[in-house]
């Protein structure tokens, strides 16, 4: 079973459960509140995913780090490489 | 360390998304279980708008992305025609 099949299986399972509750396919006569909650579910999931993405982006922006040490290390390495190249007769 | 403006903007985004999520959750999940004449219902639009508004927002967003893409593509094409 490939990953795609697993995902398709899960999605179709969820979609079936959603359709059963929303359209009352088997005449199970759920309480009307269930149906009220169920029918906007796809949009609700989409909105929650959007909120999660927005929060993740915001959090990463707020805690974005400068890598001071790595920058210094890189500058040292550049200097080292330049000296090495100069020694070997390369004009920089 | 992120600058002050970055931190404010990021925390603002987090706060906005949390507020939106909680408001929308109450609107969609909690309201059907609250009596129709309860005070809480006064702070929310009718139920069908909980799907219409995100739909409209999504369409507007897609239109903006399409317009942006079109503008960028047109700008990139112009210099080639000049040559």
Automatic annotation (TrEMBL), chain A:
InterPro entries: DPM3. Residues 1-19 form the signal peptide. The keyword Transmembrane applies. It is found in: Endoplasmic reticulum membrane. Residues 64-91 form a coiled coil. Pathway: Protein modification; protein glycosylation. It is a multi-pass membrane protein. The chain crosses the membrane at residues 43-62. GO terms for cellular component: dolichol-phosphate-mannose synthase complex; endoplasmic reticulum membrane. GO terms for biological process: GPI anchor biosynthetic process; muscle structure development. The keyword rRNA processing does not apply. Keywords: Coiled coil, Endoplasmic reticulum, Membrane, Signal, Transmembrane, Transmembrane helix. It comes from the Eukaryota. Stabilizer subunit of the dolichol-phosphate mannose (DPM) synthase complex; tethers catalytic subunit to the ER. Belongs to the DPM3 family. Component of the dolichol-phosphate mannose (DPM) synthase complex. PANTHER family: DOLICHOL-PHOSPHATE MANNOSYLTRANSFERASE SUBUNIT 3. This is Dolichol-phosphate mannosyltransferase subunit 3. It comes from Kryptolebias marmoratus.
From TrEMBL, chain B:
InterPro entries: DPM2. This is Dolichol phosphate-mannose biosynthesis regulatory protein. Coiled coil: none annotated. It comes from Kryptolebias marmoratus (Mangrove killifish). GO terms for cellular component: dolichol-phosphate-mannose synthase complex; endoplasmic reticulum membrane. It is found in: Endoplasmic reticulum membrane. Pathway: Protein modification; protein glycosylation. Its main location: endoplasmic reticulum. Keywords: Endoplasmic reticulum, Membrane, Transmembrane, Transmembrane helix.
């Amino acid at each position: 079973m490939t990953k795609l099949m697993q995902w398709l299986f899960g999605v179709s399972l969820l979609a079936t459960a959603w359709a059963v509750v929303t359209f009352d396919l088997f005449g199970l006569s759920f309480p009307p509140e269930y149906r009220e909650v169920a029918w906007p579910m796809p949009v609700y999931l989409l909105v929650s995913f959007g909120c999660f993405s927005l929060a993740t982006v915001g959090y990463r922006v707020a805690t974005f780090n400068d890598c001071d040490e790595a920058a210094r290390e890189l500058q040292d390495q550049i200097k080292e490489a330049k000296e090495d190249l100069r020694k070997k007769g390369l004009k920089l | 360390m992120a600058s002050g403006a970055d931190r404010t903007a990021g925390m603002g985004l987090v706060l906005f998304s949390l507020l939106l999520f909680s408001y929308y959750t109450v609107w969609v999940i909690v309201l059907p279980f609250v009596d129709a004449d309860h005070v809480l219902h006064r702070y929310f639009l009718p139920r069908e708008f909980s799907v219409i508004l995100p739909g409209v927002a999504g369409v507007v967003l897609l239109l903006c992305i399409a317009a942006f893409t079109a503008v960028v593509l047109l700008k990139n094409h112009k210099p080639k025609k000049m040559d």
